[in-house]
TrEMBL record:
Its biological purpose: Conversion of 1,4-dihydroxy-2-naphthoate (DHNA) to demethylmenaquinone (DMK).
Protein name: 1,4-dihydroxy-2-naphthoate octaprenyltransferase
Family matches, as NCBIfam families: menA, PRK06080.1-3
Catalytic activity: an all-trans-polyprenyl diphosphate + 1,4-dihydroxy-2-naphthoate + H(+) = a 2-demethylmenaquinol + CO2 + diphosphate
C-alpha cells in the first residue's frame, strides 16, 4: 500500500512547471492587453494543474497495466512498482480530470462556451496519451501533444479567457512555453529509450535515436531564447527572460555530454525551472509595462 509521500511522488510534482508556467505566461499576455483578471487566472491554473496530475496518474495506470513500467528508471510508478492497485490509480486519474473539467466548465461559461469543446479535447488527449487501444504516446506523438496542450492551448486559452482575445505576444509566449514543455518530455523519453524500445513504446526519442534526440532537446531549449529577442519588440523589459539562460545551460549539460539513465533525471527539473523562471520574468515585464 503506497503511503502519502509515494502518492505525491506518483503525481510527478516535477512536471508541475509544465502546468504553472503556461498560466503565468498567458496571464502576462492578458495583462499586456490590459485584461488580466486574477480569479480567471486561478481557474485556469486549477485546470492546468489538475489536468497534468490527471495525465500523470492516467499514464501510470495505462503503462502499468501494459507492463511498460516493469523496468523503469526515474520517479516512482505506483502500478508498475506494485505500490498501488490499478483501480486506485485509475480513480486518482479520473478524480483529477474531473476537477479539471469542473474548473474548465466554469471558465468557459464566464468567457466563451465554445471553449467546452477545447476542454473536452484536452481531457481526451490526456487519456489517449497512453490509454485506449492505440495510444498516441506509443506512436511518437507525445511531444506534439504537449506542445499543443501545454503550450498553445494553455497559454492562449489563459490569455483569451481573461482578455477575450489573443495577439502576437500571446502566440510568441505559447510557442516558447510549448517548446520548453516538449523539451521536458524529450528529456524524459531520452532517458527511457532502452526500456521503451523493449516494451514496444515507440516514442519520438525511440524513432529518432539517442544522438538526434539530444539535438532536438537542445534546439527546443534554445528556441525561447530566440523568441525573447522578438518579445523585446513589445517591450525591452522582456529581455529579463534571459535570466533563465543559466538554468537552460545547466539543463543542457548532461544531454550534451552524453549522459543517460538516472543521470538525466535532473535535466527534467532544470528544464522545468528554466520554463518557470522564463515565463515569470517575461510575464512580469509585460504586466508592468
Amino acid at each position: 500500500m503506497a503511503d502519502f509521500a509515494q502518492w505525491i511522488e506518483g503525481a510527478r510534482p516535477r512536471t508541475l512547471p509544465n502546468a504553472v508556467a503556461p498560466v503565468i505566461a498567458g496571464t502576462g499576455a492578458a495583462a499586456w492587453l490590459g485584461g488580466a483578471v486574477w480569479w480567471r487566472a486561478l481557474l485556469a491554473l486549477t485546470v492546468a494543474v489538475a489536468l497534468i496530475i490527471g495525465v500523470n496518474f492516467a499514464n501510470d495506470y495505462s503503462d502499468g497495466i501494459r507492463g511498460t513500467d516493469d523496468d523503469r528508471t526515474g520517479p516512482v510508478r505506483l502500478v508498475g512498482s506494485w505500490l498501488a492497485t490499478p483501480r486506485a490509480v485509475l480513480a486518482a486519474a479520473v478524480t483529477a480530470l474531473a476537477v479539471a473539467a469542473v474548473a474548465g466548465l466554469a471558465l468557459a461559461l464566464v468567457s466563451a462556451p465554445w471553449l467546452l469543446a477545447v476542454g473536452a479535447g484536452c481531457i481526451a488527449g490526456a487519456w489517449l496519451y497512453t490509454g485506449g487501444s492505440r495510444p498516441y504516446g506509443y506512436a511518437g506523438f507525445g511531444e506534439v501533444a504537449v506542445f499543443v496542450f501545454f503550450g498553445l492551448v494553455a497559454v492562449l486559452g489563459t490569455e483569451f479567457t481573461q482578455a477575450l482575445r489573443v495577439d502576437w505576444v500571446g502566440w510568441t509566449l505559447a510557442v516558447a512555453v510549448g517548446a520548453l514543455s516538449s523539451a521536458v518530455l524529450v528529456a524524459n523519453n531520452l532517458r527511457d529509450i532502452p526500456t521503451d524500445a523493449v516494451a514496444g513504446k515507440t516514442t519520438l526519442a525511440v524513432r529518432l535515436g539517442d544522438a538526434r534526440t539530444r539535438v532536438l532537446f537542445q534546439l527546443l531549449l534554445a528556441l525561447p531564447g530566440v523568441l525573447t529577442l522578438a518579445l523585446v519588440l513589445a517591450t525591452p523589459w522582456c529581455a529579463l527572460g534571459l535570466v533563465a539562460v543559466p538554468l537552460a545551460v545547466r539543463a543542457a549539460r548532461p544531454v550534451r555530454s552524453g549522459r543517460g539513465g538516472g543521470e538525466l533525471i535532473p535535466v527534467l527539473r532544470d528544464t522545468g525551472l528554466a520554463m518557470l523562471v522564463w515565463s515569470t520574468a517575461v510575464a512580469g515585464a509585460l504586466a508592468v509595462t
